[in-house]
Write a structure and sequence with these properties.
Blueprint (H helix, E strand, L loop, with lengths): L1 H6 L5 E5 L6 H13 L4 E5 L3 H9 L16 E4 L3 H9 L3 H21 L6 H10 L3 H11 L14 H16 L4 H11 L8 E4 L5 E9 L2 E4 H27 L4 H20 L3 E2 L16 H20 L11
Parallel strand pairs: 1-2, 2-3
Antiparallel strand pairs: 4-5, 5-6, 5-7
Helix pairs in contact: 5-6, 6-7, 8-9, 8-10, 10-11
Length: about 325
């Protein structure tokens, strides 16, 4: 019955929970079915999912030279089943994985016809959100040959959130791509440097602080907190909930960076998009702007850059791995 269902073209997804694939005949059933059922994908749920994928499913030979047909059709969710089951049903994770199968098929058809450029960026975003890491690597390696910051997602801040999500998955799964995603995260946040801090709207009442994101484009503190920092911290908290305390140690290598990001969030909240003079500890409230405005401008930047340097542990905020 299992073999027949695998071969059925209506079978799109097989969910595997906690199985170590020690039975070779089961593996061969999956390999055989993948030849005829082009839509067949596997969702593998287990804290050791990545390990079993590498040792049992990714290659068809013991020397690990020849990739199986399923090598980029298996999504490993390296979490306890008790925590991830709710995501599969209540948060539409399973439906989104099904969308990955459908959208990829449509993009391949677009690619064959050559009438227009297939939008692989959209599929990449969904794959990372579904934590379909094998498909993510396939798209980045075979379909999108751009640097991470050159990929056009829907919003500028999307690249940072997606990179963080993929990095956390990679750390937990221990798939060997942790450093690559770490670099992509830092590329996405390279505007968070003390030199990009600027003063805006200097008036009698107060002033605003902004970060220069790109040439001619700035974001105030509320925007940086809401669009970049907070979504990244949500990804961190989400992973901690999925892992439970037993497996939280897997993320200890990056915990210090997220603690610094939380401190940065508190700093952004304290100052906000507009700061009045009476809230500023260095300069007394101004009655009127005069030639001293330029001097005050420099004093503000010097003071705030000093605070940021302490929070960032350097001139630029960046994630790093600690032993």
């Amino acid at each position: 019955m299992f073999k027949e269902r695998l071969a059925n073209e209506n079978t799109k997804i097989v969910i595997v929970v906690g199985y170590s694939f020690r039975d070779d005949y089961i593996i061969h059933m999956l390999w055989d079915a993948s030849r005829t059922n082009k839509d067949l994908h596997i969702v593998f749920i287990s804290p050791t999912a990545q390990e079993h994928f590498e040792n049992k499913l990714r290659f068809i030979d013991k020397e690990k030279k020849d990739l199986s047909r399923l090598c980029d059709r298996i999504g490993c969710l390296p979490y306890p089943f008790s925590t991830v089951i709710g995501r599969l049903i209540k948060k539409d994770l399973l439906r989104n994985i099904g969308n990955v199968v459908r959208i990829e098929k449509d993009l391949i058809e677009v690619e064959k016809r050559g009438a227009r450029e297939p939008e692989w960026e959209n599929l990449l975003r969904i794959c990372i959100d579904c934590e379909f890491s094998t498909k993510t690597k396939h798209i980045l390696g075979q379909k999108i040959r751009k640097k991470w910051n050159e990929i056009s997602f829907d919003l500028p801040q999307t690249s940072a959130r997606l990179a963080v999500k993929a990095m956390l998955h990679s750390i937990i799964a221990q798939d060997g791509f942790e450093n690559r995603w770490l670099n992509r995260v830092n590329e996405s946040l390279d505007f968070l440097t003390i030199e990009n801090l600027q003063v805006s709207r200097l008036t009698d009442e107060g002033f605003g602080l902004v970060f220069k994101v790109s040439s001619g484009d700035t974001h105030n503190f509320d925007s940086v907190r809401g669009k970049w920092v907070y979504p990244i911290l949500l990804e961190w908290r989400d992973k901690l909930m999925l892992l439970t305390r037993k497996f939280e140690k897997n993320l200890s290598k990056v915990e210090q960076s997220f603690n610094r990001l939380e401190t940065f969030r508190e700093y952004l909240i304290k100052l906000g998009s507009w700061t009045t003079w009476n809230k500023y500890p260095i300069i007394l409230k101004k009655k009127s702007l005069d030639q001293d405005a330029i001097r005050e401008f420099k004093v503000i930047l010097e003071a705030e850059r000093k605070k940021l340097r302490k929070i960032f542990d350097g001139d630029t905020f960046h994630f790093e791995f600690k032993d």
